[in-house]
């Protein structure tokens, strides 16, 4: 094995150890799957047609299986099988 590969491998290992130590000492975690704040309430839509009749502006285009996520200041209509937010609306206080 050439010498330069050993040095590169060593640098990669040192970088990983330093990164891990920083995260442990700062008590931070990496969240790749959910960069958003944690939802206060999560509701799976069972009858999208009924909800669309009650509030066509927010629920228009919703499908059964979509999820309504309630945060402190807004709502999101999320489609998990497409991994995208369909609609977002502020919560009136």
The total of beta strands comes to 4
Shape: elongated
Query: What's the structural domain tally?
Result: 2
Total count of helical runs of at least 4 residues: 3
What is the H/E string? HEHHEEE
Radius of gyration, whole Å? 22 Å
Major beta sheet, specifics? 4 strands, antiparallel
Low-confidence stretches: none
The amount of helix comes to 25-40%
What is the overall pLDDT average? 81
Instruction: Tell me the span between the first and last alpha carbons.
Output: 65 Å
Side-by-side strand order of the widest sheet? 1-2-3-4
Structural class: alpha+beta
Strand content: 15-25%
Description:
The chain is built from three helices and four strands, in the order H-E-H-H-E-E-E. With 93 residues, it is α+β, with helices and mostly antiparallel strands. It folds into two domains: 1-30; 41-90, no CATH class. It has a four-stranded antiparallel beta sheet with strand order 1-2-3-4, with no helix packed on it. The protein is elongated. The mean pLDDT is 81.
């Amino acid at each position: 094995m050439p010498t330069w590969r050993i040095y590169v491998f060593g640098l990669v290992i040192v970088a990983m150890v330093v990164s891990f130590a920083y995260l442990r000492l700062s008590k931070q975690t990496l969240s790749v799957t959910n960069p958003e704040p944690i939802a206060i309430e999560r509701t799976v839509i069972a009858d999208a047609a009924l909800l669309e009749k009650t509030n066509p502006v927010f629920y228009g285009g919703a499908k059964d299986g979509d999820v309504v996520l309630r945060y402190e200041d807004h709502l999101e209509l999320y489609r998990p099988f497409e991994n995208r937010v369909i609609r977002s609306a502020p919560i009136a206080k």
